[in-house]
Amino acid sequence: MSDDKYLKRTIVKETVPSRYLEDGSRELRIYLPPGYNEVLSYPVVYGQDGEDLFNFGRAATLANRLIIDGELEPFILVGVDVNKKKRTSEYAPDGERHEAYISFFAEELLPFIEERYPVRRERRERLLIGDSLGGTVSLHLALRYPELWNRVLSLSGAFYGASQTIASKQADLSWLQLYQYVGLQETDFETDTGVYDFVKLNQDMYAILSDRGADIRYIEKDGKHQWGSWQQEIPDGLQHFLD
User: What's the Cα-to-Cα distance from 129 to each of 141, 172, 240, rounded to whole Å?
Assistant: First the structure.
């Protein structure tokens, strides 16, 4: 990871206008792979917590390494920024801004990217990635819009009661593919809404989803509820879907 060739990244910033979001727009940061060419077509990864995903998750550098080293074909990564004061209300399924956010994501963000970048438009060529509540909203985007997304990379998903209730109401999830990671040191993590055992939350969600036929690669190993742990898991998660 210290090799300079991995650090020469192309990241473009965009602003998506929105009629759903109260701010009227949302900032994006878009990673374009080495050798990017508009006459080609690329798989696309849509990431929550865009600023943190790029800065603390080092997602663009990790993507560069995987592509340059020939471990993955080139892909485009779209990081969607969030106002952290509004994060829970947008990402949690019982949040007051959740419906507006997922409508923005599916009806405004997706067409915005597909009109401007040569991304593949088949569902199997799209991937959602998110950490904690970002993993939660990624799953709910797939549940709400299964025609658009069926692949989710969840890093320590915050699968609280509301999420489990929604998932339990699904009859058939055989179309859903999930890479679900949680760190074993996440048993008493304090959030803005309380202290939670993320291992138990993820075990419970795994049971719910797998019981309904979802295809899940479930990972438990040493790790804390922080980017230092999630960063280590991103390459394996991307390779699981994009290889």
Answer: 11, 22, 12
